[in-house]
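Appendix B. Raw example, untouched.
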Amino acid sequence: MSDEKAKSAAKPAAGLEGMVAGDSAVCFIDGQKGILRYRGYDIAELGPSSTFEEVVWLLWKGELPKGAELAAFSKELAAETKVPVEVAAAMQTLPPKSHPMAALRTLVSIAGNVDADAECDPSDVAANLRKATRLLGQTSAISAAWERVRNGKPIVEADPKLSFAGNFLRMISGENPTEVSTRVFDECLVLHADHEFNASTFTARVIAATLPDLHSALVGAIGALKGPLHGGANTAVMHMLIEIDKKGGSPAEWVREALAAKKKISGFGHRVYKTDDPRATRLKVLAELVATQPGVARKWFDLSTEVAKAFHDQKNLPANVDFYSASTYFALGIAPDMFTPIFAVSRTSGWIAHVLEQFANNRLIRPLASYVGSEPRSYVAMAKR
């Protein structure tokens, strides 16, 4: 065996599945038992009990905030939930057909150029926290603003009296959301805030390990989340539900035909969880709660439950976090191609927590590759080929 082949003999699993890539105190997952915890707190408890602002503080600082701390942070975050003037101008130059994730990726990068702490040292904790708060608020405002700009509508300013979740819904619709809508959306943000070393988070940490600015790491994470194998699954779920609704007939039959045709059905199973996804359990509750509100079409929730039952009966796979988030967001009046930007808005909190953790105890992330190419060979001159 050559030196190259010997070096690659201990081959990792494809996609690094099951491989431990580093230490983190941010998030814990037990895929066998269906457990997800942020900083030691179970998501099943955090989801219905906390607010997104509380969870952001927890992720960034390691402990739940006291009353005065939460009030001050919430006020600061609301004040930073705005689109920088330079970013608003750049929006007008983007093609209206730009995908919301492509627009977000570009516009967050521009925001990094005009940030007050743009070139702060990665070791400057205070500056990074200031930047983090601005970035979280701006990501929300930019996503909502692009949804309006691309539809020919004026940008809506955040209301300092509303929560982070309430302001996002207001900035999209132009109207203050109901208390139920705000509470449901707030918990959706909590459920999506972090998920250990997923593709986008790991991307952010790899970039952070080279010690660039915070925005660079977040732009990379947004790019990773844009991929349909990571952040776009709930959009695919909604398109599936719309297709089934238009066709009519039995959802179970549609699932059976789709499986027979080897059609990919999004929203079921998970790379990590071997049992129920704890986030999906709560999202089903939230989806039903939204569906019971006046003026909301319940059919999307009912159709979702029928599809989930049919898929479980035929493939024995439970719904994952993407499945019920689709009907939840759609019932809140959000367009399907905005589902992934919502994911990004929430996950920005987790990305930042991981980048700050990487900055605090950094070592350049530089893994090895398992070489599967040619054996050593000699170059042959052009004339002899």
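End of appendix B.
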